[in-house]
Design a protein that fits this description.
single chain, about 425 residues, alpha/beta, Aspartate Aminotransferase, domain 1, Aspartate Aminotransferase, domain 2, seven-stranded mixed β-sheet, 16 helices
């Protein structure tokens, strides 16, 4: 047992007795963090920093899987939640804050004319798909990106255990920035595709005219275009990636940064489509839970009154620019690169010499975590990250990159690794 992570490992052993994987979230579980060199439980967070149960401090680049945009325990969000807590959390009728938050989303998001709330991103994407199927009277969907755990999507991935074959046959994956792959789906299933749902951007930028062409092709074939902005919404721009790229979908889904970590998601879009929600059953006991709505209103208001998006972009560019220079200087470009948007970028690790990308990534995580940077290869920047924090992260990278080079070039991987390599279990993007 690692002394640095002894409490984490004890809690993991205990958790595994009552919780499958020891976590409620796949991406926070032991499948994603190498055992023996990783923390498994966090006790608190403030700003851009978190502390694990062993008392180790980290600059957090995961930020609760992009759910944190302002920073942990943001004072404005916390104050709004505390005030609402005194008035109540859930009631027997809707609370006025429901319409206030809906109005704010309509004000900020180009495609939003009407809004319905859920709790997780999967609620919103599944609601949007059900709505599109009802609106078009079609069953099949085309997907690109990660869209949650529900049968209609997850059945199209390697994690399809328990999903009926009949449902799996209704979902078809296409390749980002490859219009022909989407065209082929429409050709194979003419007049049967209800919706095209996609992340408008994840690891790669949209090619010039690509999103516009997707929209045109989708509408030409009588389907609805859905942007899954669970991550890009309120992170790439106040109005999401659709505002940034100037392509307006029929429906859009939001979550994560919508409420700076509080459980809230939303389906928004054209009024003529959204009004069908009066017939389509999309209903939650806790859909109008007021603490998350108060957090959301405070978050969106802060986005409008503070330079949140611009600051996140600047910090992300600072990190990406510095890291690209380091990768080149240390001679690692043949197996390490960067991709993505400054607000949500990715360290891309490839196989090198006799080692797999997963072995290299495990060593990368081992060394980054030991030096106080919480990451599994993404840079999910928050407003709380200061220029000094980014400098500290770059200083850590400057120490870790030579270790990776030494491990690969001098065949020292298994000498330097203090744990078993993580294994590829589920690629979502």
């Amino acid at each position: 047992m690692s002394e640095r992570y002894s409490c984490s490992e004890e809690l993991l052993e205990r958790a595994l007795k009552t919780i499958p994987l020891g976590s409620q979230t796949f991406s926070k579980s032991k499948t994603q963090f190498p055992q023996g060199v990783s923390p498994f439980f966090i006790s608190r967070g403030k700003g851009c920093r978190v502390w694990d149960v062993d008392g180790n401090e980290y600059i957090d680049l995961i930020n609760s899987l992009c759910a944190i945009t302002l920073g942990y325990n943001d004072p404005d969000v916390t104050a709004a939640v505390r005030e609402q807590l005194e008035a109540g959390i859930i009631f027997s009728l809707p609370h006025p804050i429901e319409l206030q938050v809906a109005e704010k989303i309509v004000e900020m998001v180009p495609s939003a004319e009407m809004v319905r709330f859920g709790k997780n991103g999967s609620d919103a994407t599944s609601g949007a798909i059900r709505l599109a199927r009802a609106f078009t009277s079609r069953d099949h969907v085309a997907v690109c990106g990660y869209h949650g755990w529900q049968d209609w999507y997850i059945g199209s991935t390697a994690r399809n255990l328990g999903v009926p074959q009949a449902i799996r046959k209704l979902t078809h994956q296409f390749t980002y920035n490859n219009l022909e792959s989407l065209h082929n789906i429409f050709s194979e299933w003419p007049d049967r595709i209800a919706a095209v749902i996609m992340e408008p951007m994840n690891t790669a930028e949209p090619a010039n005219g690509y999103l516009e062409a997707v929209k045109e092709l989708t509408h030409k074939n009588g389907a609805l275009l859905i942007f899954d902005e669970t991550i890009t919404g309120f992170r790439f721009s106040n109005g999401g990636a659709q505002e940034l790229f100037g392509v307006i979908p029929d429906l859009a889904t939001f979550g994560k940064g919508l409420a700076n970590g509080y459980p809230l998601s939303a389906v928004a879009g054209r009024a003529d489509v959204m009004r069908l929600m009066e017939e389509v059953f999309f209903s939650f006991t806790f859909g109008g839970e007021t603490l998350s709505l108060a957090a959301s209103l405070a978050t969106m208001t802060k986005l409008q009154t503070h330079p949140v998006i611009e600051t996140i972009r600047q910090r992300g560019e600072q990190l990406m620019s510095g890291l690209k220079q380091q990768i080149a200087r240390h001679g690692l470009s043949h197996f390490i690169s960067l991709s993505g948007h400054p607000a949500w970028s990715f360290v891309v690790i490839s196989d090198a010499e006799s080692y797999s990308a997963w072995e290299i990534k495990t060593l990368f995580m081992q060394e980054m975590l030991a030096r106080g940077v919480l990451t599994f290869g993404t840079h999910n920047i928050s407003y709380a990250h200061g220029a000094g924090d980014i400098d500290m992260v770059l200083d850590v990278y400057d120490k870790v990159l030579p270790v990776l080079r030494d491990a690969v070039e001098n065949r020292k991987m298994h000498e330097l690794l203090r744990c078993k390599p993580i294994e590829p279990l589920f690629r979502v993007r």
